[in-house]
Design a protein that fits this description.
Blueprint (H helix, E strand, L loop, with lengths): L1 E6 L3 H12 L7 E6 L6 H4 L8 E6 L5 H11 L4 E6 L2 E3 L3 H12 L3 E12 L16 E3 L13 E4 H7 L16 H11 L3 E14 L6 H21 L4 H19 L2 H23 L19
Helix pairs in contact: 7-9, 8-9
Length: 301
């Protein structure tokens, strides 16, 4: 099995993520790190892995997590591929659990799992894109939710070969800085694959983003989601209108249940979402532009 890790300008987080994979109850046959950082991670570039683990550090001049995933998948040499990101720490049983779940589910399935928030790394720090449900689930066909978290995912290399690469116009590092996982999950479902949620496959999304950036990050996430909706609306997939209705209902429920910061974040998400849809539909000639600045103001994604 191969584990893929993507990173950009977060060397400390990347080193910790790789260490958490190597400290698991089972180790992968291969780890491939695609690092889009401005400077190579010298510590990882010279890493001597444990016996039985092939370690490949690829310093890439590409920008964007979708491009990073595509570079990584092109380099795999094993049929089972497991994916996480540099700002995640995997539980000790994660790799064993998610691979066993994939084998059990068969060759027309992709596995995703729970994503929990790690402890705040400074006062008010937060993590997003959490999937905290504890009940197993299976998703097929056109649905109103987007269940796939690609930073906690296992799939067959043959699945990637069939469905194709991640859309490099969507995701962190682009004008639409989120939702590359939503887009890929939707494409998997349209291709007849099942997305299986295994709550026992757990990663912890580190709470490293500063509180002052909460609203701007929510706006960026909404803008990315809007780009994903705009992409499929542009191809006349009118089911996206149904998905939009349910998405807005979920935002409304969260506003009623949230505190002031949460309410402002939801308004920011909706605003970003509307801008993202319009930007995709009204300015298609600019879709391939690269944006290396992240949604938290750093030079990461």
């Amino acid at each position: 099995m191969t584990v893929l890790v993507s990173s950009r300008n977060r060397p400390r987080l990347l080193t910790d993520a790789v260490a958490s994979v190597l400290e698991g109850s089972v180790r992968p046959d291969e780890i491939i790190v695609v690092d889009q950082s401005e400077e190579p991670n010298q510590r990882l570039a010279g890493l001597s892995p444990p016996a039985g683990v092939a370690f490949r550090y690829l310093h890439s001049d590409t920008v964007g997590i979708s491009r990073s995933r595509n570079v990584a998948f092109a380099a795999v040499s094993h049929p089972v591929v497991v994916v996480t990101d540099d700002d995640c720490l995997v539980d000790r049983a994660w790799l064993r659990t998610i691979v066993q779940s994939l084998i059990k589910a068969g060759d027309r399935a992709v596995i995703t799992g729970r994503v929990l928030a790690g402890p705040a790394e400074e006062e008010g720090a937060f993590a997003l894109s959490l999937h905290a449900d504890e009940v197993p689930a299976e998703y097929t066909g056109r649905i109103t939710v987007d269940p796939l978290a690609t930073f906690n995912m296992a799939m067959w290399a043959s699945t990637f070969a069939e469905v194709g690469p991640f859309d490099s116009r969507i995701g962190p590092g682009t004008r639409f800085p989120s939702s590359e996982d939503n887009d890929y999950g939707y494409r998997l479902l349209l291709a007849g694959y099942r997305v299986v949620f295994d709550p026992d496959a757990v990663v912890r999304h580190r709470s490293w983003r500063a509180d002052r950036n909460y609203v701007s990050v929510r706006y960026s996430y909404g803008r990315g989601q809007g780009g994903y909706y705009g992409k499929h609306l542009a191809s006349r997939d009118w089911y996206m209108i149904v998905k939009a209705w349910y998405a807005l209902r979920r935002r409304g429920r969260r506003m009623r249940q949230g505190d002031l910061r949460g309410i402002l974040g939801e308004f920011a998400w909706i605003g970003g979402w509307a801008v993202g849809i319009g930007d995709w539909l009204l300015r298609p000639s600019r879709l391939d532009e690269r944006h290396a600045r992240s949604n938290d103001g750093s030079r990461g994604w």
